[in-house]
Design a protein that fits this description.
This protein is α/β, with parallel strands linked by helices and 196 residues long. It contains six helices and eight strands; from the N terminus they run H-E-E-E-E-H-H-E-H-E-H-H-E-E. A six-stranded mixed beta sheet has the order 1-8-7-4-5-6. Strands 2-3 form a two-stranded antiparallel ribbon. It is extended.
Length: 196
């Protein structure tokens, strides 16, 4: 049996309740602060996406607008899976394990799709092996991940890595986890916000 070292002190029920009450106040303030930040994120101005991005999926090449599947909002999960990787990021995979039935998003007129830079056959095989059902597309060969800062700039960068790093947006080379929320505004796509 494994021994747990460095545990906190054992105290009376009254002392524990006082400590827990103090922590609860901090937790509530953190929740309120997060709610304010989330509201600020939702109020960010939108920007039109004019570049004609294409993705590979089960039905071949599709456009960004096609990923909406006829709904007005699209949440894109930038799933870290580089072109030369044999499997997806373990943290992204763990998060993907929690993606269940998408019905609740669909009734809210929202589609969820994952996007990675690995070639689609690799993504499809990995998705099958993991037992996932969510839509997953490859952006390999396009600037999509670079343009939306979901891939770090390396020696062969397409983005200004130094500028991004100076703003604290980029600390690594390669895929970065992120969520991008875009909306269709009759016939055009607009970027709403990114969510960590």
């Amino acid at each position: 049996m494994t021994r747990m070292d460095n545990l906190p002190a054992v105290v009376s029920a009254e002392e524990w309740l006082a400590a827990r009450t103090g922590l609860l106040a901090k937790e509530k303030e953190l929740t309120r602060a997060r709610d304010r930040v989330n509201a600020d994120r939702r109020r960010l101005p939108m920007v039109r996406i004019v570049k004609p991005y294409s993705f590979e999926g089960p039905d071949g090449t599709v456009s960004l607008l096609d990923l909406f599947e006829g709904r007005s909002q699209l949440v894109m999960h930038h799933f870290m899976f580089g072109p030369d990787w044999e499997q997806g990021c373990s943290s992204c995979s763990s998060a993907a394990d929690g993606i269940g039935n998408l019905r609740q998003l669909h009734v809210r007129n929202t589609t969820l799709a994952a996007v990675s830079r690995a070639p689609y056959p690799k993504l499809a095989a990995y998705r099958e092996r993991m037992g996932w059902a969510f839509p997953w597309y490859s952006s390999q060969g396009s600037d999509f991940n670079y343009d939306f800062h979901a891939t770090g700039a390396c020696a062969t960068a397409r983005n200004a890595a130094a500028s991004l790093a100076a703003r604290g947006w980029l600390t690594t080379c390669g895929p970065l986890p992120d969520r991008l929320v875009v909306a269709e505004d009759p016939g055009r796509v607009v970027r709403r916000f990114d969510a960590p």
